[in-house]
Structures are given as C-alpha cells and as structure tokens.
Amino acid sequence: MVQQIVFIILALVIALCSVLAVTSKRVIRAATYLLFVLLATSGLFLMLNYHFLFAVQVMVYAGGIMVLFIMAIFLTHQPGKRVATKSSWKVTSSALLAVAGLVLCGVIIVRNLSCAFRVVTEHEISMHTIGQALLGTEKYQFLLPFEAISLLLLACIIGAIMIARKDRGVKEIEKVENEETENSETWEKSL
Amino acid sequence: MGEIIVNTAGAIPLTAYLIVGLIMFFAGIYGFFARKNLIMILISVELVLNAVDINFAAFNRYLFPDQMEGMFYALFVIAIAACETAVAIAIIINVYRKFGNTEVDNIQQMKE
Amino acid sequence: MEYTLLILLLPMLSFLGIGLMGRKLSHRAAGITGTLVLTVVTLLSYLTALDYFTTQKVNGAWQAIQPYNITWLNVGERLHIDLGILLDPISVMMLVVISTVSFMVHIYSLGYMKGEKGFQRYYSFLSLFTFSMMGLVLSTNIFQMYIFWELVGVSSYLLIGFYYTKPEAVAASKKAFIVTRFADLFFLIGILLLSFFTQTFDFEAIMGGDGSILSSALGTTFLGASALTWAMALIFIGAAGKSAMFPLHIWLPDAMEGPTPVSALIHAATMVVAGVFLVARLFPIYIGFTPEVLQGIAYVGAFTALFSAIIAVVQTDIKRVLAFSTISQIGFMMVALGVSTSMKLTPEDHGGLGYMASMFHLFTHAMFKSLLFLGAGSIIHAIHSNDMKDMGGLRKHMPITHVTFLIACLAIAGIPPLSGFVSKDEIVTAAYQFSTGMGIWMTVTAGFTAFYMFRLYFRIFWGKEYRGEVKPKESPRSMTYPLIFLALITLLGGFIPFGQFVTADGVPYTIQLNSTVAIISVVVALVGIGLATLLYRKEEKRASWLPSRSSGLYKAAYNRFYIDEAYLFVTKKIIFNNISRPLAWFDRHVIDGAMNGLAWITNRASDAIKGFQSGSLQWYAWVFLLGTLLITLFAILL
C-alpha cells in the first residue's frame, strides 16, 4: 500500500514537472522542473530495487548534468528573462502531434499489457555483481561497452573544451604566441 | 520470466511505469518541437532519454528479473547523456558568443 | 631524309610562337621570325628535292619513300589512321612550289602589309597555312590528307577574313568556308566509302598492289555504278570544291577580299591546286578502275576553263580577272588529268602525257600566277584601288612591276619560250590526242586567256594617263625582289626537263614539242594579244566596243552568268523558306518549348516543395514523428 502511494506521488511529480519543464517560459524554471523529474525518476529506480542505478541517476544527472545546465543558463541568459516562443501554429501542431502520439502509444500499451506483472524476486543487485558484469568479458558482461563509453567520455571532455574555448584557429594560436601581450583585448572585441 | 500474478494487492503494474515513461517521453517530444531556445531543446532531449531509462529498468525488472541488461543499458544511456549534454552545452555557449542568443531560428548562417 | 619532319614542324612552331606571343611581338619581329622560318623551310624543301632526285631509281622509275609513318589512331583490327611523310615526285614537286611561293609571299608581305593592324596575326596565319599545305601534300594516307585538307580550309578562311571589320571580307570568308566545306562533305563520304571497302586509308596499300584490294569495291554496285566509281566521284567533288571547279567555283572570286599576297599564295598557287593534287595522287585508281570518272573530270575541267575565261574577259576588278583566270587555268590542269588514258609515257605511248602536263602546268602556273597576283598587289598598293577604270598608263611609274607583269602575261598567254607556253602546249597536245573537239575547245580557251590577260595588261599600264589623287610610285624592294625572282622562274621554267622528274609511273620522259599544236597555239595566242592590243592599247573609246556589240552576253558574263544569284535563289528562296524556316519554327517552338516546359515544371515543383528542405531539424523530426505515428496507426488498424 505504501509502495502504491509513493509510486502515485512520484508518478504525479514526473508527469506534472515534465509538462511544466517543456512549457515554462523561463529557462531556469524549466531546468528546475527537470531536476524534479530526474529526482523522481531516481525514486522510481529505487522502487524497482536498482540501487546502483538510483545512485548514478542522482549523481550524474541531478548532480553533474544539472550543474552544467544551470551554468549554461547563467552564461547565456539574463536572470528572469522570458524566452521567445515559437509561432502559435507550430506550438499547437507540436502539441497535437505529441498528444496524438501519447494516446496512440497509451492505447497500445494498455491493450497489450492489460495484465499486471509482479516482481517475483525482489532482491537487490549487489555492487559485487555489477562490478563483475561491467568489467567481465563473458556473455552478458560489458567490458567493451564500458571501455567504449569511457573513451566517449574522454572524447567529449576534449571536444567540449575545444568547442567552448575562445575561437582560435591554429594560425591565431601561433600569432598569439608570437605577440602574446598585446592582443587579448582585440580578441575580446572581435568575438 | 517471472511468474504472472493478477491483481495482487499492493503491487504496482508494469503498465503504470510505462505510462509514466510515456508521458515524460511525449512531453520531451513536444518540447523538442515547440521550443526555440537551444537549452530548452536540450532539456527536452534529456526528458526523452530519461523516459527511455525508466522503460529499460521497468522491463528488466518485470520481464527478466534474473538478468541485468536493462539496468546496464540505462546506465550507459545516462553516461552517453552526460557526454551529449557536455558537448551540446559547449556548442550552445559558442553559439551564444557568435550570435548573442540561443534561438535555433537565428542560427541560419551555417546553412550557406 | 629524316629532316623532312622539320618542314612540317617549323611552320607549326612559328604559327604557335607568333600566334601566342601575339601583340607582345613587334611587327618587325613577327615578320622577320616568320620569314626566317620560311627561309629555312624553303632551303630544306630544296634539299629534299635534291636528295630525292639524286637517289637511285628502281627499274628506271622514281620510288616513293616514307621517312616517317606512325600509327596515330587504331580503329579496329585492321583499320588504323597513320601520320607520316610520303615523298614521291609530285609531293616533292609540291614542296618546292609551296615553299617557293610561300617564301616569296612572306618577303613580299613585309612591304605590302607594313603598318597593318594585326600584322602578327597575319604572319601566324601564313605559317599555319604553310604548315597545313605541306602536311597535305606529304600525307601518307587519305585520312591524314583530309585532316590537313580541312586545316588549309580553315587557314584560308582566316586569311580571307583577315580584314574582319570589312563586311565583304567576312561574307567572303564565310562563303569560301561553307562552299568548300560543303564539297568536303562529299570528300569525306568518298573517303569512308573507299576505306570501307579497302579496309585501309594508306595510299600505298590502296594503289601499290595489283588492285585486288579494290575488287570488293568494284564488285558492289549502287544505282548502276560500282561503289568505287561512287567513291572516286565523291572524292572528286571534294577536289572540285577546293579547286573551284564549276559549279563550286563561286567562292574563289569573292575570296579576293583577302590581302593580295594571300590571294597569290592560297588562291592562286597552292591551296586551289590541292584538288588537282588530290586527283593526281589518286590517279592510278582513276585511270585503272574508274576511267569514266576521269572523263567526267575532263569535261568538267574543260567547261570550267572556257566558262571562267569568258567571265574574265569582262570583269573590271583586276583581282577578279586574275581569280577567274586562276579558275580557268585549274580547269586546264583538270582537263590534262582527265584526258590521260594510261600511266605510261614513252615516245610511243602518250597515254600519260596529260598527267605530266598537268603537273608541269601546276608548277609553272603557281609561279606566274603568284607573280601576277603579287604584281597586282604592287599596283593596288601604289594606287589604292582594285578597279581597272582607275588605272592606265602606269608603265612609266612602276617599271619593275610593269616588266614582271608583262612577262607573266606572256607566259600565261603561251608565248614561247616562256614557261607557260611549254606546259600549256603539252596540255593542248594531250587534249588533241583525246579528241579533236577537246583540242579545239582548249585552243579556243587559250585564245581567250591571251585576250583577257592583255586586256588587263593594257588597261593597267597603257591607255589614258593616270590621273588619280595618289601619286603612283614603284613599290619598296621587299615587294619588287620577289617579283623579279618569280619573273626569272617564269622566264626560265620552260627549260626545266620536267618530264625527267614527274610522270605518272615515275619513268623519266623527255618533253618533245608537237610542232603543229605549238604553231596553232602560238597563232591563237597572238590573235588574242593582237585583238587586245587593238582594242585597249590606246583609247578607251574602243574599250566600249565589246560591251556595245554583245550587250546581252556581256551583261551576263559581267554578272558571272548569274551563278551566284542561282545559288542565292536555291539557298535563300527554296532551302531557307521551305526547309529551314519550318525546321527553325519546330526547333524554337516544339523542341525548345518542350525543354522549357520541363524546366518550368521542375522549377514550379521545386518551388512548391522547397519549403520541406528548410534545414530546420525540428521540422524534420516533426514530419518524421508524424510519419511514424501514421504507420503505427495503420499497422494497428490493420
């Protein structure tokens, strides 16, 4: 019973906050609603007994990504400023399409999964097992994706730095190295 | 596959998880279509990814409780989402430097 | 004889050099470069001739030599197009003619064209012409000949239209190009027909064997004549176009719009005799397998000779007179080829006399006709007019031009012992051997020749005193020296033992004058000259005697028997109106319309759908999702 109540609360939070997140006029509010959605999602993971997933969700999403978002918002927006919206027919058509999709998929789900399933073995997966699976090379073990993801992360870090750094091509870097002192202000202006 | 128990009191049906994920997914879709701001679009994409995570986890737990693939995929999606966000935000900041705002419709110069 | 390649390469390099450097060169530098190159080429040509005619004869006959022959294009297993150099008596003779006249013209133009705009262009075109003409005569196969044949056509076109700001010159160059090109179409068909049956382009392969290679062409008949007859007749049409035989002669008088030295080089001495050269080159086939075509050539030549001689009598533009005279003289050469009956030329058998006479006349005619043209150029240069009416009494003002012109006139009229007498006499002798009628016809033509040449001579140098605005004076030395040189050749050319060098079968022959024919010719020539003296020597009153006596004929001849008008009628009225116009309408409205319609539809369609390609990712995703949903819905409902 308690479980059901908690689930209903989480489900309501998710539904409400996702809709608010995409309709909010202010970006910072949208980001906050997103944070709520992410936290509630982590709650769902907890209810499904995926404790590790819960921890990752909270740390990476709610902790890491949200910080990035908020930083970006502060860098690119004046606080409190409303963002422009699209022309109304685009908004309406998108809304109609989204609702239509929602209804269609909902119908499919409800029709095909009318019977309820319950978890038979509700045990927690131990960290030991997860670690074994992540770094093993057997069947159902994930060393290769793990390494691929780690490489991807590295590439992203480098890429993000390259993109976000001030716009200097190779030539300009050489130039700057040559006349290091004088030009920093000019660059600011040119950007 | 787990044993099927119909209408057990106190249990949450799989459908419920799926519906929650569905709402989140289409909210994300709507945001992706309707918003102009790049950050808003990114937020929408995060919502879509997150909805997928819920589905992975729920299906794994309900249909194949003895295995862990769904959970791992959710894990990887989270990692990839983190990467994607980092790069996207770098791009957004760059765009903002170039154009002074972050509206998609204004970024037309790269077409030519 | 490997250096013969230089004869081709040097003029080409000079063409490229002068042509590409263009205005960066000074007039002087361009002229001197061209002339120096030509000097070398001329020396090389003489050396070639010397070398060639001092090599050993095989079985008493001159042999053809091929210093070069490379396969240029492979067309199938057996058919290939070669590029090479073929030396035999006629090509060596042509080398000497072309280089001599071209060299003289190069020197002459230094004076004549002095200060003209486009002087460098002029010299580069002269080099191009020399190159292509040399290539034409040195060709080892008929296809290579065709290539150079077209090249001389192009250079002729370029040089006639040299004064491209003058509408008449532009029209004349177009006319020359189109008429000769039209004839070349038949030439090409003839070449293809011939090579289709013989499977080769090579002259030696076609003519060298016992004729078995031609048997398949002889065996196939079409419209009552063998394929070989058709091929040779078509090739002759090409030759007739280049050599201005009736009725394709109309371009040559108009070609006189070009600079006079060009007329001397291209339209008197070298290019126009390319047709004669072509017939001579293929002579073994004509004589051995299609004598009926050869007879046709004789009749066409005879008609053209008299026809244009009559026109020449009444023309007043001195260059036109010379142009019609050229047509007439080429007619003589064609007749000479046509009346030949065999390859042999011995004191017992005169079958090949015509061939030798034709080549000899080609040689002498090139010399005295270019002399006449250069003399006319000298006169035009002095008084800036082409028309006889403006001339008269110039002999005191221009002594050198006068004397050299007189020598050329005597030569063409056939007064012994000048070169023209000997060669023309051989032609007339050959014509008498063919048939008495042909002999008389040619004798009459020769009389006309003497008459119109001396009419020209007297009206230029005698008669009323010159009273023009420009004070005439003798031309500069660069112009008179070539005149003197050519006059010397004209004077002495008759003494060349031509038969020792060029005969149909390569066996030397000693020319013997037929005294009866010679006496008749001389008498007829003297009558012609006497008549001209009587009419034009002193007063111009008598000059109007001819027009008043035979006004209808005179008018018709003056208007060149309305051949040009007939052409215009056929092309403009009939072809343009009934064929070209409907075709043009069809092209403009139906074909262009269809194309434009397609373009319009495409334009409209892309206009209508270009919004889809907005580049907006959101829009793409929207459509994508819509599609996905529709497909899902469709799947569920089914």
Give the tags.
heterotrimer, B: 112 residues, Helix Hairpins, 3 helices, elongated, disordered N terminus, C: two-stranded antiparallel ribbon, 71% helix, 4% strand
Mean pLDDT of chain A: 80
- CATH homologous superfamily caption of the largest domain in chain A: NADH-ubiquinone/plastoquinone oxidoreductase chain 6, subunit NuoJ
Please tell me how large the radius of gyration of chain A is: 23 Å
Q: Unreliable segments of chain A (pLDDT under 50, ≥5 consecutive)?
A: none
Second CATH tier, the architecture of the largest domain in chain A? Up-down Bundle
Q: Quote the beta fraction of chain B.
A: under 5%
Distance between the termini of chain B: 55 Å
The rough form of chain A would be described as: globular
Which class of chain B in CATH terms? Mainly Alpha
- In whole angstroms, the N-to-C terminal distance of chain A is 60 Å
Share of helix of chain B, binned = 55-70%
What structural category characterises the helix and strand content of chain A? mainly alpha
Q: Helix count of chain A, per DSSP?
A: 8
Instruction: Report the helical percentage of chain A.
Output: over 70%
Give the biggest sheet of chain A: none
Most residues in contact: chain pair = A-B, 90 and 79 residues
Give the assembly state of these chains: heterotrimer
Overall 3D form of chain B: elongated
Helix-strand string of chain A: HHHHHHHH
Commentary on this structure:
The complex is a heterotrimer of chains A (191), B (112) and C (638). Helices cover 74% and strands 0% of the residues of chain A. Chain A is mostly helical. In chain A, helix 1 runs antiparallel to helix 2. The mean pLDDT of chain A is 80. Chain B has a single domain, classed as Helix Hairpins, CATH 1.10.287.3510. Chain B starts with 13 loop residues before the first helix and ends in a 13-residue tail after the last helix. Classes of the chains: A mainly alpha (191), B mainly alpha (112), C mainly alpha (638). Chains in contact: A-B, A-C, B-C. At the A-C interface, helix 4 of A face helix 26 of C.
